[in-house]
Amino acid sequence: MLALGEICLHRGELPNVVRPGDQAQKQNLDGIPGLACFTLAVDGIRDHMAGFTLDHVRMQILAGLYHAQLCRVMESWSYINLASRTLEAILQTRFLHSLSRQDDSKSSPEDFELSFIFWTCFQLECEILEELSLPQSNLAKYRDFVPYPNAQIATDWGFPPPAIDAYLAHIYLRVESNQAYSWLYNSTTSYYCEAMGKAMNSIQSAVKHSRNKWLPPRYQWKDSDPPPSDLLSARLRARYWHLQALLYRRFLLMLFSESQRKTLRPDFQRVIARQAVQALIESTRAFHVVGYSDRFIFTNIFGTAQTQWGNLLMLAACYKIKTLREFIDRETLSTLFTWAISFFQTIAHPGSVLMAELNILIALEKDLSLTRNDSREVPPPTVGTRDIT
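The chain above was modelled as a monomer; its predicted structure follows.
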């Protein structure tokens, strides 16, 4: 916890990890915030790898979150996956009978603690697996048996109401996102418009058309509103619009193909194209007003970057197609690329996947003739994160 707190309180770019050498370990310990505490904590975790208590799950979650701040997604996944499997063993042996969809108003502090840890593990693991094809725990099969954390107990325990409201809304969107993946990206619905349409309408009825029910009043917005200025609101909108983009992606890919495009009615093509492009734009620019003069604090920085990168590739493809270009203007696309490139330059380490993706964005921006002649407030592409040497 001390290590995670230290790195989250750090302002400015994080230093790079120094490659192995005589002085590497000392330089890393001195330069990377929280690493000294983290090293000691990990030694303790190794001594309790076979432990099956909620304390063990907490330690594994904190270790995963620490690695996530350094964009070390594989290390983060290993700890989150371990936490999920440990929690699964706890659910099987001790708690499941007392949690099964009981009245939320009667939730005890012990049940709240378990449900809070369950949904935290569930979200963190899903965030990583959404971007990377990695082994998954069996935690998802308990989803229908574990209630959402009780908001009143959370408030009594000291959680700020805005934070717990956003947390519960994220759970709802995560469950719907998983359902979208299940329905739209399996063998029975992938290539059938009718099946995809039914799946999309079902999810939209639970998300878009009932937004006033699952979204807390403090976070309500209109689709025409500009991006929010606070991080909690921005994360919620980014997740909502990412789900919308996911729902339309299959149809949008069909519009990229001349042969598949002919299977869709012209009026339907325009509606789908407009909504798909809007979702991609809003998902990409959700954080633009928040700013990051210091540094964004996300539970999964790598996943946020991957969403930005994927959205921009799709938007660039739309911009190159004459029939889709009308839904995104050059100025908007240029602004999205400028912000994303600047964001990547603050988190990408030399030799990393993020650095390779940054270079692709820069090349694509040039290819689309989006590079501005005026001074763009981003560091040179070779900067990445600051070396501690």
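The radius of gyration is 22 Å.
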